[in-house]
Amino acid sequence: MGLKGLAGCVVVVTGGAAGIGRATAKRFASEGARVAIWDLSEKAGGEAAEEISSAGGEALFSRVDVTDAAAVERGFDEVVQRFGGLGALINNAGILADAQLVQARDGVVSGQMEEASTATSGRLITWRPKRASSG
């Protein structure tokens, strides 16, 4: 079953260079979305964008650290410059220090991963594309 209505939609996928993020970016692209992949890994991110492009999709890779508000702002600006706007953000980036979402000992939960604070969460609400001055 396809994801209806995605043709031409611009989608940013944070953490889009590998794993679930990469699969998400590829799926959106296969449904006709134009995809911006944000990640810290230039090698993997570039490869993911090239993979999408080689399959006939449209993709842009940007090295964006989502914990850095200025980097996020530059990333949004680059997306708007390249694609003309933004339709959706898949906030997939995350870091696990010990690679465990939940810690348990003898069947008792002793700790859980705290919510990662990313610059995209707050910036998306207040971000607006810069408009060219008319006249």
Structural class: alpha/beta
What is the approximate shape? globular
The Rg value, from CA coordinates, equals 17 Å
Helix content: 25-40%
In N-to-C order, the SSE pattern is: EHEHEHEEEH
CATH class: Alpha Beta
CATH superfamily name? NAD(P)-binding Rossmann-like Domain
Residues in β-strands, percent: 15-25%
Structure described in brief:
The chain has 135 residues and is an alpha/beta fold.
What does this structure look like?
The protein is an alpha/beta fold. It has a single domain (10-126), classed as NAD(P)-binding Rossmann-like Domain (Rossmann fold, 3-Layer(aba) Sandwich). The protein is built from four helices and six strands, in the order βαβαβαβββα. The strands form two sheets. It has a four-stranded parallel β-sheet with strand order 3-2-1-4, with helices on both faces. A two-stranded antiparallel sheet has the order 5-6. It is globular, with a radius of gyration of 17 Å.
What is the strand and helix layout of this fold?
Layout: E1 10-14, H1 19-30, E2 34-39, H2 42-54, E3 58-63, H3 69-83, E4 88-91, E5 102-105, E6 108-112, H4 119-126
List the defining traits of the structure above.
135 residues; alpha/beta; Rossmann fold; 4-stranded parallel sheet; two-stranded antiparallel ribbon; 4 helices; 36% helix
